[in-house]
Amino acid sequence: MTAMTMAGAINRGMRAAMERDPKVLLMGEDIGQLGGVFRVTDGLWKDFGPDRVMDTPLAESGIVGTAIGMAMRGYRPVIEIQFDGFIFPAFDQITTQLAKMHYRSRGLINLPVVIRVPFAGHIGAVEHHSESPEALFAHTPGLRIVSPATPQDAYDMIQQAIASPDPYLFFEPKARYWDKAEVDEARVATQLSGEHGASAATAELSRGRVAREGKDVTLVAYGPTVRLAMQVADVAASEGRSIEVVDLRSISPLDSATVVRSAKRTGRVVIVHEAPTAFGTGAELAARVMEQAFFHLHAPVLRVGGFSTPYPGSKFEHDYLPNLDRVLDAVDRVMTH
Amino acid sequence: MDTQGPLSEQGLVRMLTHTGERIEDERFAPYAADLDAATLRAMWHDMTVLRGFDLEATSLQRQGELGLWVPSLGQEAAQIGSGYALRTSDFVFPSYREHGVALTRGVDLPEILRIFRGLQHGAWDPAAHGFHLYTLVIGSHALHATGYAMAMDRDGLVGTGAETDGAVVCYFGDGATSQGDVNEALVFAAVNDAPIVFFVQNNQFAISEPTTRQSRVPLAQRGAGFGVPSVRFDGNDVLASYAVTRWALEQARSGTGPVLLEAFTYRMGAHTTSDDATRYRTRADEEYWAERDPIARVEAYLRGIGELSDEAIEEAHAEAKALGRRTREAVKSWSPPPTSTIFDHVYAEPHTAVESERAWFARFERSFTDKGAHA
Ligand SMILES: Cc1ncc(C[n+]2csc(CCOP(=O)(O)OP(=O)(O)O)c2C)c(N)n1
Hints:
Shape of chain A: globular
Number of domains of chain A: 2
CATH class of the largest domain in chain A: Alpha Beta
CATH superfamily of the largest domain in chain B: Thiamin diphosphate (ThDP)-binding fold, Pyr/PP domains
Helix content of chain A: 25-40%
Radius of gyration of chain B: 22 Å
Largest sheet of chain A: 7 strands, mixed
Oligomer: heterodimer
Number of strands of chain A: 14
Bound molecules: thiamine diphosphate
Number of helices of chain B: 13
Helix content of chain B: 40-55%
Radius of gyration of chain A: 19 Å
Number of domains of chain B: 2
Strand order of the largest sheet of chain B: 1-2-3-7-6
CATH class of the largest domain in chain B: Alpha Beta
Largest interface: A-B, 42 and 45 residues
Structural class of chain B: alpha/beta
Strand content of chain A: 15-25%
């Protein structure tokens, strides 16, 4: 076990992947000598050189488009998009090309491209630096979408995503980059060196986890809101309520089985994400809970998320984003049924 | 220094040396001919005040009053010189570092800080100043600028020879020249003969990446491929910036189509207050460029011709200081309006999703005053 921040865990995970497979290379803006604006690639340019840690021209469509070409020749590009709000110049390449090549080629072309996106808010930034665009991509078949909430998951999941033959959007909760925890480096190394390592990795990446057990309410979160959900569970516990926290980890595929299992026990579900509630991950999940656990529910499934406004000035982000009060309010509402 | 590539001095138009001696440039001298000492002094004055403001904003950020600041340090000549070449009939699309141009368009500088204090995304009325909002997504605004210019053309505001003739100036950085949107803007502007001046401030860096990561050739050379006349000039020379921009604007206003300008300058500060430039550039490089400070250069020139007195210098510094004080007081006095205002202006007409959330939020806030807060 080694103590790591989440940023450090992703850094070490990428380093391990690069050591394991010479075809893994990194692409992005300012990821070389600078080590990325969040320093997630710190030291890698020095150790692996500019051919494997590429400071690209300032053009996201170019980055993703050329990564696709490289992946066609067996490379495994890991892209850093500098901030969530700057992925959109690449939206076309991601949704019309990256997502569909395997299907269009009838399985002949794999595109093992990982697009890392520091996302979500709570860093007091100017506009376009705090967004949560995951649902825009989740609506596109052909992409896998994951988001770690802890250093351990960050360390494991980045390596699993790189090893998997499919394209990934890897959403990193940037406000959690500096959270520190002990990380076990051995388990994922063993998994990936196994005979069906990539398949096992993909399967594991597709599953959520119960982060805390409880019996009154199922609180579902991922990425940046997992920590909030855990805090809510603590506060609720002091009020005599037992909250089960599910960390989805994966948004596409969505591990509804884990949520449904929990919902059948608690009968109450609250979903929390930073992205706008409308048409979000929570909407999809709520629909699945209705379809699969309707007769076990004691209350309507509630969602707490960003409002239907553009991300406001950072002075308002605490109120715009789900916070302790808003999630507790939702817990209250499902409990009064 | 590189002799061929995008960081070379190849083909730079220059009218003042870095020690402040005047050089005659045959082609562009006529465009500075009307520039009397008083106007040049006014430019110097604005550059000085701008820098004072800029440094104050940096210190406000350091003290936690601003979330971020994007300094214009070192780019004063490129911005003030080109800004002075504009008329009210022109329209500017800035990126996010053009505080100097904002000043020449009559934006009260402290107002810019509302954005960087996290209060709002836009802080002035674009139409009132002929100066669009800042755009943080690199290159996007180049297309808006082009469309705006195409519309000005359709509205008969180009090529009549009248004072109402106008053009658009679109500012962006060296990094931005790699974006698809910027290249598409050049294509659209070219095939439509749009009255637009693309103004690249090549400050040699896109955050940490030197311009050599974006191009093999000087950026002005890109214009030829689009059929767009282009000029490179010394961006730390306010006289060249004024004259070349004036020429470009006259071209564009006359209806002959777009022009691409490259102001070769240097970002003397970090990219933003979040950046640490020591990670990717040398002290020696910074010192070399400190000797080419755009303000010192024009100051030396004006002093050399006996047009800048000690009193005038003192006065400008006092004014910069006073602006600094006013800025500090203004920033500290701004407290956020009620959170309910985040629901304003999402749409021009009521939208049920926004209105129901607005109503929900009002009830939610009331619930605290009614029964006391939760945690
Ligand atoms: C589409 C997009 N990608 C990435 C960024 C992050 N970013 C902000 S400024 C910057 C560098 C810009 O360099 P340049 O165009 O040379 O302008 P400068 O900041 O030097 O004035 C980058 C990469 C962004 N704002 N927009």
